[in-house]
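Below is how a single chain appears once it has passed through the pipeline. First comes the sequence as given, then the structure the pipeline wrote out for it. We keep one example in the README because the format questions we get most often are answered faster by looking than by reading.
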Amino acid sequence: MARIPKETVDQIIHHADIVEVVGDFVSLKRKGQNMWACCPFHHEKSPSFSVAPAKGLYKCFGCGKAGGVVQFIMDIEGTSYVEALKYLAKKYGIDVEEEEKTPEQQLAQNEKDSQYIVSNWAKDHYHRLLLGTDEGQGIGLSYLRQRGLNQTTIKTFELGYSLDQWDDLLKSATAAGFEQKYLEKTGLIIRREDDQGQDTGRRYDRFRGRVMFPIHNVSGRVIGFGARTLKPNDKTAKYLNSPESEIYHKSDVLYGLYQGRQAIRTEELCYLVEGYLDVLSLHQGDIKNVVASSGTSLTDGQIRLLKRYTDNVTVLYDGDAAGIRASLRGIDMLLEGGLNVRVVLFPDGDDPDSYIRKVGDQRFRDHLENASQDFIQFKTDLVSREAAHDPVKKAEAIREVLQSISKVPDPIKRQVFLQQTSQAFGIDEQVLITEYNKLVRNATQKAPGGQSSSGGSGAGPGSGNNYGGSQQVPSGGASQRPAPRPMSPEEEAEALMYGASPEDLMGGGGDLQTLTREELEPVPDVLEQCEREVVRLLLLYSPQPLAPEVSVAQYLLEQLEDTAFKTGLYADLLHLCREELEQGRWPEVRTLIQHGRSDIRSLVAELATEKYELSPNWTTHQIYVPRELDLLQTACDNAILRLNKVNVERALAEHMEALRRPMDEAALDEHLTTIRLLKQMDNQLANMLGTVIPRASL
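Resulting structure:
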């Protein structure tokens, strides 16, 4: 991957004003020290999106999005870190010279850049032909006008026309100085071969006599084309797409996403259609949160792309029953990807493009709202109608619905869908749960390595999603209990005294194997919270003086000299703060919020933002409210004392646990001596913190 020199990165970050950059996308209003707006990443009525100019960061207290100016561009544009830096560099007129690459890397980059350049030139060429030639206007433009598209839509999507000639593009590109190999690599021209498959040396245009639909990536660069023939009785395909290339992978592209990405974020919803004209007509009708799969089956890459912008997808179908049946598998993939899926059907013979032209924008919107239904309910209705009164078909229909439910990662949603399916088919819910679990077990056994074939959409260990075998629904009811903990020998003995059988001890006793409070309700890690507080003070108040020539940073780092952090992320941030100080700089939010690691950026944003500010009315009424800045010595002392106390308590617990194991007398004496010292230290720290309650007060 291309790398930008650190000096250039620093220059970009220094010049990029976060208020100015964010203000390009939302309307900010000052309230106190910060700027506020409705969040551009989710729909809300009251502003919860805050920008802190002094710290150079943003945070939404509604959806949790947070970061610095580079992260904002990554989030809003869906781009990589390097692409976000280039975006800002272009905005502020900063030249980006990437670090020197190996000859192989440079060649690969030049190859891709050349393909982007020639694709963009071809887009402009086709657009000029559409608007500036007799053939383009008479055939291409008249067709687009016939389909109801206006000039604004044509220019927004940069539509074009290819002349009905064998080599128009080839000649024009050659005259413009482009090498044929790049025209061939992007699929704009085709080499002619003889009957034996040998290259004849001749080349001709791929697209001839067609309306051209440029395909953009999320950054707006042209990567390929879709083309519709306008010739009557044409024996070639009605639609023709660019072939796969180094810059165009159709499985990772959605038509219209570049033009509609901001509307998708704002509306928190994406309409999924099939064709280019569906996107164009809806966009022209001010329904801009729409994309198309361009007539291809949905892929995992396209679903991941959608997931970056919204969790909610509504699929717009025409009334063709065969087409609906064929696309059900694609919707199962949407469910598997963790998306909330709804469906809207149109009357027979209509698709989204024809229907909006027939009824108008407002009635089309009304139909989207009134005809929308959850996909599981839609599929249940569809297959139950097909099954009619045939018991065998009805059983198969139920299994089809259960297959779709098994794709849903969220266990609560799965349970709700099972209840709805039970009511729709008039089948006892317990029977459905049993059949559902059987389907999941079979899928788990068939999948390689014992992994369920359902749930392959990016869920890994620790992801929090339940897939495969872990998706089974307990047959006793809706709620799921954690697996019971194993019994201790003492508990086993006591259970046997009261008549429990060996089978009960293996898991059949249920009530005997009670859950601990920690298993029912996770307890926050106290050590992690203490380390977090120390890092927060260091990050926010490093240069503040505690005493003459003693800053917060110096004091905290001196106190932590012999203390190793156990939480990896906090240890990394502490190390970064030390590095900044060693290089003669104070650790600053504005600097660390631009770090290359996303987890560091997220942590800095969390530590540096506060949802509420002290009202100036207190000062107006001459009421003094102390701020943390006024009590820094106390805050630092308490943070260090609490961290030390937790570490002492943990060490004490380890030695107490060691006493349970067999040991010789010398080792026992050593443990007991250490325990006494640790208890003394624990009492001293408690006294210093004021957490010891005198016996007389009890």
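The mean pLDDT is 81.

See the next section for the split statistics.
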